[in-house]
Amino acid sequence: MSMTMLTVLQATGVSAAYLAVTLLLPFLFLHKKLHGFANVPIRFMIYFMAGNFYVMNLVFLLELLHLSFRLTLILGTLAPFIAEFVRKHKGSFRLYLERGIEKLSLLAGKEMGRKTFLMKLGVKLKKMSSGRMGMRMSGHWMDVLLTCAVIVLVLYMYGLNTVHVYGYCASDLVLHNHWINEMNSNHIFADGVYPFGFHCVVYYLHAVFAIPVYVVLRVFYLVQTVMIHLMLLAFLKTVCRARYTPYIGTVVYILSDVFYQYAYYRYYASLPQEFGMLFILPAACFAIAFLRERDFTAAVGREEKGLKVVNLYLILFAVSISMTLAAHFYDTIIAGLLCVGIGAGFCFRCFRWRYLKRIVAAGIAGLMIAVLPMAAAYVTGTPLQGSLNWGMAMLSSGSQDSGGTNGKDADDGGKEAEKADKENSSKGILARAAGMFTPKKTARILERIDYYVMNDNIMAVKILLGSIAVAFLMGLLWMLFRKAEYGAVLISLSIFTGLLAMLQVSEVLGLPQLIEVTRYPVYLVYGIAAVWSLCLDAVILSLCRWPKAMNVLSMAGLIAACVIVAETGIRSPRYITAYETNEAVTCLTDILHDNRGNVSWTICSANDERQMIGDKGYHYEMITFLRKMQSVNKNTEVTIPTDTVYFFIEKVPLYYRDYINSEIPDRKVSPAGARKPLSDKGGILPYIEDARWVTMSHMYYWAQAFKELYPNEMEVYMETDRFVCYRLRQNGYSLYNFAIDYGYNGND
Questions:
Q1: What is the pTM of this model?
Q2: How high is the pLDDT of residue 399?
Q3: Scanning 34, 129, 372, 580, which has the fewest C-beta atoms within 10 Å of its C-beta?
Q4: Domain end position, chosen among 106, 123, 140
């Protein structure tokens, strides 16, 4: 089977497993309880939030109790269904159990054929459905088709990278791989306390479905990115009035070439921050739904099958907020900014004590739920992880942006702003506010947003900022028209995106930097897509209030948006440079397949494979291997005590950290590289940029020299124009000494 086909199957399997536990199982458990409650997009969010929340916290609980194994995870997953079944059939539980065992014994004893069993099961399922699915979908086929089109577009835009680039597309995935591997031994927070929600979900998929961790990390970003876009669409479906306006912002967000690569490139890797984005808009949706609940003004709360609606929305808001922090604290910061926008937009409700106290309490409860597992580990002696310390220090002090805008970051107005900052008088404050938007600073603001957010198009920057202002003004207008809730949504999103735009230029304005400057575009563009949909929705609603006419106008708007995107430029699918070559991943996959049940093998390579193989074999660091024979004499001995040793060598070393596929000329291993001394630095430094070329050159010429000595034993396992893997079989009781003089040992 080709690696491309295998990757397609792996991506399909991981996606199916993830959606089964985060959508299908919650649907099966909750759909009767939520029947008739809210609309489809909100129920979709409820199922997804419930599934992710349950999986995360099940893993947290079992890991902290040191009871996390495949059996306990499966039992924990089925526990709600078992409890519900026992509750419903308390008196007849034994009878149901006996009947089930009887049917299974008939099937196992071949007294009932599989065809008969499947036929009976099919008849039962048919009776259960009774054509209801078709009846429910009869008025929604256009939405189904458009939603499928959105999914197809996302798969096209990001899926091509999945099937063509096999390695990790982010350098820190190796570290995340290590942390998840440690969870196999119930050693959570292996490197210190850190938001582990993403790791819990990946570990769950690995442990329950027996999918290797490196496979999940390679392909999980595809289903994650699809769900990020579906969350945007579902959110817009809950706040827009016209039927098809939600698709406008979503399609423009997927296809338009107006945005710069910073807004998209992190979607090509399975990362905690992007995983946490799944829960930001649902948190906003449930907060808005709570504030819209009119029956709550009587302090009663409408009930749906025993559930108080207001309480349910608050619980879901708390759950969503907790998962943003469980995934990544950057997502919680962004969710907090969104809550600020919602608080300002719904100020007519949010500042009433009976609303405010409940929503603040729900937010605090959500944060406490996320903090609880981390606090439990911390009080038992686990220190904070290094990047968490860094993040907290950055929040407390405000980091300075290391990125530049074409070398034009310094200006004459900075000193004036500093002086105004020091003045405590009202005059000084007014002077500072006026100095923020001088013509020179305004030009720098536009230039900075253009550099980080837009694709070299100042006019697009002006449209972006203008759309934020338009959304705010239209929100005020709709409030005057006594559509306060609708206007509040427009104001909320405009304030949120406005705050993000200000933070994007925080250095220019003298504001603190909450997160890294290259991370803001990811959230800003995501929010702008929602703003654009809402602006068009407000225009359509102002032109016509008749539902059918609104649908026609919104469909015309969608078609017009597609035409405009086609005229202004559709972005092409990108292939992100991975931190490991395709050949290395293919070779690793073949090695794992060939050595099933055998652990007496070692890969000698650069550092990425070390965590990818997990506990299936061993890894020997390439730089350590080479350093041990820098000066060879008769007493020098380098051995690897396994039956088989594989040597991974890049004949054309990849340019590590070239994540956006810059035009870097190929440089092959050569005697010139081998003559240079090996790097004496630690970590990944011997494997990046020129140091990697030197390291691989040394390794290549060592392999050539060793193959000359042992031509039959040192065989080629896999070779292309850019990569070669050698395999050496040896007797475990008579190991080869790899310390040889290969001609370039003593160059340091």
A1: 0.87
A2: 45
A3: 129
A4: 123
